[in-house]
Design brief:
This protein has about 450 residues and is α+β, with helices and mostly antiparallel strands. Helices cover about 25% and strands about 30% of the residues. Strands 5, 6, 7, 15, 16, 19, 20, 21, 22 and 23 form a 10-stranded mixed sheet that branches. Strands 1, 2, 9, 10, 11, 12, 24 and 25 form an 8-stranded mixed sheet that branches. The protein starts with 5 loop residues before the first strand and ends in a 14-residue tail after the last helix.
């Protein structure tokens, strides 16, 4: 299909946010009897799920120390639960296993989950945690765990299947999805700063409203919109830093273990909950026997329905350079992150064996896949959902993206003039006012 010369709504990005926003926008307009206004086009330079959403680990969780994130994720989990077949969603639950240094944080998360009606269980004490985990996995052998937060909701999904299911919903609602169309810039109204034209390699599109949902490419679109590369940030201690870079990049390390599809099962033979372990117990290499880490470290893993086997990851590391080349095409065919470092492979496969005896000696089955990649983060590592240039809604998910399926519905409501209270804590104004999200003791920058 040729690129049209005009569309009321143009959404850039055929990942989780772009497709969800398009679908809900069309659905809401139809429910209001405004089908004639539902001219909605989704553009993507590749195919559906060609970016971060398509290779995401597929984990769906509510495990956040930050109240605003926890409430937003509870909303998204409801969206996953609303159509598990179409979204290829497996509601197996999620388990956060933590050492004593994180105990207070985890108790706080549990208490607030109870306050918002999110189903979870809290287990405290090293002996109690070990007994609980062995009741699920008889070969559990992880050490240094004094708290288990078992979310009975949440789980994981087949990311590509869910994206194509979401795209089918959007198309059925009347959305046009154009693949292989690259956005090259924007034109602005001469009498205001509003976006008037979306420029592409296949022609220009006049639009009334623009939504940017491009995941790790957000910095490049931010630059096309001529928005500031640095902003003032008031930290949690009240000190103002006048020139903080708007974007930071972290390398997200994830991988796949090539084992049978039923390898990671519970004692009852069921699909397991997602496991996320943080611990300060020493980790030794399965390959060499050498000490890998004796400080706080973390790992997560679950069955994989896209690559097959077991997929998961470990702590990311910061990319220091801020050159234009970073994240220009973070998931492109020549990107180095598709070849996992030997250090990551050793650490991740050894951490699996640290947790479950069944993984001992299985490090030789590591399989390199297009998993992980560069993440583009805001100054406090949490999302920005806000309007710029009067008619451009920017979804900057700060790498929290795939699990946040419900954000599209809230963005669609705001595009149509409503205010979504769940998105209020994520405006860009929080950086200047110092209303930042609290920081936990987790080794992950997004927790």
């Amino acid at each position: 299909m040729a690129v049209p010369s005009k569309s009321k709504y143009v959404i850039v990005g055929a990942g989780i946010h772009g497709l969800s926003t398009a679908y809900h926008l069309a659905r809401i307009l139809k429910a209001k009897g405004r089908e004639s206004e539902a001219e909605i086009i989704v553009l993507d330079k590749g195919k559906i799920g060609a970016g971060a959403s398509g290779i995401a680990c597929g984990i769906v969780r509510n495990n956040y120390f930050q109240p605003a994130m926890r409430e937003l994720m509870a909303h998204s989990v409801k969206e996953w639960e609303s159509d598990p077949k179409t979204y290829s969603y497996h509601p197996t639950g999620y388990m956060q296993l933590s050492p004593e240094v994180m105990h207070e944080d985890i108790v706080s998360i549990y208490d607030q989950q109870q306050n918002i009606g999110y189903q979870s269980a809290l287990i405290e004490g090293a002996g109690e945690c070990d007994t609980y985990l062995k009741g699920i996995f008889s070969d559990w052998q992880g050490k240094g765990i004094t708290t288990v937060l078992h979310e009975k909701q949440g789980g994981f999904a087949n990311n590509m299947a869910s994206l194509h299911g979401l795209a089918a919903k959007a198309r059925e609602a009347g959305v046009t999805i154009l693949e292989g169309v690259t956005v090259t810039g924007f034109g602005f109204d001469q009498t205001s700063d509003a976006v008037s034209t979306v420029m592409t390699d296949q022609g220009n599109i006049e639009c009334e409203y623009l939504v940017i949902g491009v995941g790790p490419w957000v910095r490049d679109f931010w630059n096309m919109l001529d928005l500031p590369n640095s902003i003032p940030v008031t930290d949690l201690e009240g000190k103002t830093h006048p020139e903080v870079p708007m974007w930071r990049f972290w390398q997200l390390e994830e991988g796949v273990l090539d084992v049978a599809s039923d390898f990671l099962r519970t004692n009852e033979g069921n699909e397991p909950p997602v496991i996320h372990l943080d611990t300060d117990a020493p980790l030794y290499s399965q390959k060499t026997g050498n000490l890998i880490c004796e400080d706080l470290w973390g790992v997560y893993f679950k069955p994989d329905l896209h690559f097959g086997g077991v997929q998961g990851g470990a702590m990311p590391y910061k990319i220091e350079t801020q050159t234009q080349e970073v994240a220009l095409d973070p998931y492109g065919p020549k990107s180095p992150e598709f070849v996992a470092s030997a250090e990551f492979v050793d650490m991740w496969t050894s951490s699996l064996a640290f947790c479950l005896q069944r993984f001992e000696g299985k490090h030789v089955h590591y399989r390199n896949e297009k998993s992980g990649g560069l993440g583009c983060f805001t100054p406090d590592s949490f999302p920005v959902f806000d309007v710029f240039r009067q008619n451009c809604y920017v979804i900057a998910d700060s790498n929290h993206g795939y699990k946040m399926l419900g954000v599209g519905e809230l963005v669609a409501e705001e595009v149509l003039g409503q205010t979504a209270p769940l998105l209020e804590p994520f405006r860009i104004s929080r950086f200047a006012t110092g209303e930042l999200h609290p920081v936990s003791n987790s080794p992950y920058p997004w927790s």
